[in-house]
Design a protein that fits this description.
InterPro entries: Gal-3-0_sulfotransfrase, P-loop_NTPase. This protein is α/β, with parallel strands linked by helices. 45% of the residues lie in helices and 8% in strands. A hairpin with a 2-residue loop joins β1 and β2 (9-12).
């Protein structure tokens, strides 16, 4: 197998991006056209990213934090004294009471990407008029399981244990989760229509989902108009390439290493059957409607793009190359150079880049907070 030296590391020739595209592209076209188009377009810097729990949102948020800090942009930061310094709220939208004011050296906020419930009017009140709205969604049942295992205290709180824990919960969810049976706590539940809650569905729709199907669909259609893109976790790389094109960002801007990944180490010890999935579909019917709508929309958007799947393959290859470099940094050269291609200008990956890819959300947000508000606690 032939190998070549690339910027200080040995890379198998067969997996380099240009090698792949030479074999893929049998037709003749202007190879530098995507780069030329990007050069003529201005990158989007005003962004509202709805950070939905357990929907790859910390991974996406890291891209937003990197992008903003590299350009000295201003982020919306939680108010002083919040329980979690990286969470604005899990039960309400942005208000003057749960966020800090615009920093003295800034004239406006540029990016909102911390946990908070969506409300278009409230978001528009603090963000520029040209803000682009990005969201994320995940298969509802997988989202539910991920939430349960990411917050293991839920098992203790609901008094469900052993291989039948999930089944026991779904057989009588209101018995276990008091938030489902008391109206005023409905925005606190993590187990029923949680994604819909974070997308700001009105309480009356959450409590009467079967009787208000038309109103629910109308709200979803309104979200469709308001969000430029809703990332689908099950098609993550495709979503990110579309994100890159919509925001006119670079390949480097959408690089990632997965954050807060829940592998469900104990999943082999629990029993999950089709009845459980059916019960959960009935319990979280709005989440399923929401997910289905934006799943279909994603592929409609992709269908309109040129040479899209070729760029996805390129991105997967580059991302893996960068990830391998960062994981083996001490044994490699100090800089990895990704050569220019039809999808990207030339860029470099340094130790600083690797550090920013793997830094925890809390540490990253803390650094930004200290920079924006140096005299605050």
């Amino acid at each position: 197998m032939r190998e070549k030296q690339l910027t200080g590391i040995i890379v198998q020739r067969e997996i380099t991006p240009r090698r792949i595209f030479k074999s893929l592209h049998k037709t003749i076209y202007t190879r530098d056209l995507p780069i030329q188009l990007n050069a003529l377009q201005k990158e989007v810097r005003h962004i509202a990213f709805l950070k939905v729990h357990k929907a790859a949102s910390t991974t996406i948020q890291n891209m937003m934090l990197r992008f903003g800090t590299e350009r000295n942009l201003t982020f919306v930061i939680p108010a002083v004294g919040t329980i979690h310094p990286n969470v604005i709220s899990i039960s309400e939208t942005v208000t003057s009471n749960n966020i800090r004011p615009i920093p003295l050296l800034s004239t406006h906020f540029d990016i909102l990407c911390l946990h908070v419930l969506y409300n278009r009017t409230a978001f528009e009140h603090i963000l520029p008029n040209d803000t682009v709205y990005i969201g994320t969604l995940r298969d509802p049942f997988e989202h539910f399981i991920s939430v349960m295992y990411y917050f293991p205290t839920l098992f203790k709180r609901f008094k469900i244990f052993g291989p039948r824990a999930i089944t026991d919960f779904l057989e009588d969810p209101e018995k276990h989760d008091v938030s489902l049976s008391i109206d005023k706590y409905s925005f606190y539940t993590l187990t029923k229509n949680r994604m819909a809650i974070e997308y700001g569905f009105p309480l009356e729709l959450l409590l009467n989902s079967r009787a208000r199907r038309h109103d629910i669909q109308r709200y979803i259609e309104q979200l469709d108009k308001e969000f430029a893109l809703v990332i689908i976790v099950e098609h993550f790389d495709e979503s990110l390439v579309l994100l890159k094109r919509i925001l006119k960002w670079s390949t480097k801007d959408i690089l990632y290493t997965r954050k807060n990944v829940n592998i469900y180490k104990d999943k082999k010890h629990i029993n999950i059957g089709e009845k459980d999935r059916t019960r959960y579909r009935q319990l979280s019917d709005i989440d399923y409607m929401l997910y289905r709508h934006f799943y279909i929309k994603l592929w409609r958007q992709i269908k309109m793009e040129l040479l899209f799947h070729e760029e996805v393959l390129y991105f997967k290859t580059v991302r893996k190359e960068v990830e391998d470099f960062c994981h083996n940094f001490n044994r490699n050269a100090t800089v990895l150079t990704i050569p220019s291609s039809e999808w990207s200008v030339k860029f470099e990956i340094s130790q600083g880049t690797c550090d920013s890819l793997v830094i925890s959300e809390l540490d990253f947000v803390t650094k930004i907070k200290e920079k924006q508000y140096p005299r605050a606690k």
